[in-house]
Amino acid sequence: MNAVKAVTQYFEADHQRLDVIFKQFQQKKEPSVADAKPFFKQFNNGLKRHIVWEEDVLFPIFEAKTGIKDSGPTVVMRQEHRQIGALLENIHNKVRQGDPDSGAQESALLEILGAHNRKEEQVLYPAIDDLINDEEVAAVFVAMENIPAERYQTCCGGHH
User: Fold this and answer.
1) What does the pLDDT read at residue 30?
2) Which regions of the chain are under pLDDT 50?
3) Where would I find the H helices in 33-124?
């Protein structure tokens, strides 16, 4: 099996990268929503890409290797992804309107993301790393690269 824990390391690093971008958005937002907008767009697209990677690549591997499909962690993760998407849409609408009053939605997003990321980092990613060999790890990263950018590079509601 895979001793490197490549999936865990890669996805944890992406969580951390996204956290930094979101903090930059929050810091820029109060003085200027316009200055914060590029950071939100980068965060929004990055988080959507991360979710697509999980749902299109990682979750099917976990489900195929464990036989756990209709219950278990991937079902919960998908439900949480829908909640995350709804909050992203709410924040995006405020950013688009130049309204800095998205603090409640940001707090809710950070709360869900914090718990969600911990479950992934402590349970799901390590399980996937334990279930796949080095060739399968390489295939994971190839599959991620092959997902068309159009799948995640649209803002909420389908516009750029």
Assistant:
1) 87
2) 156-160
3) 33-53, 59-66, 73-97, 103-119
Which DSSP symbol is given to 68? -
Give the pLDDT confidence score for residue 151 in this predicted structure: 86
Residue with tokens 């980092």: 121
Cα 50 from Cα 107, distance rounded (Å):
20
Instruction: Note the pLDDT of residue 156.
Output: 46
Q: Of 102, 51, 45, nearest to 79 (Cα)?
A: 51
Q: Which residues of 15-29 are buried (b: 16+ CB within 10 A; e: fewer)?
A: beebeebbebbbebb
pLDDT at 3: 57
Q: Which residues of 79-118 are buried (b: 16+ CB within 10 A; e: fewer)?
A: ebbeebeebbebbbebbeeeeeebeebbebbeebbeebbe
Would you say the C-alpha torsion 122, 64, 136, 77 has a positive or negative sign? negative
Count the neighbouring beta carbons within 10 Å of the beta carbon of residue 129: 20
Q: What is the pLDDT of residue 118?
A: 97
Distances (CA, A) of 46 to 18, 33, 40, 53, 101: 7, 19, 10, 10, 22
Predicted TM-score of the model (pTM): 0.92
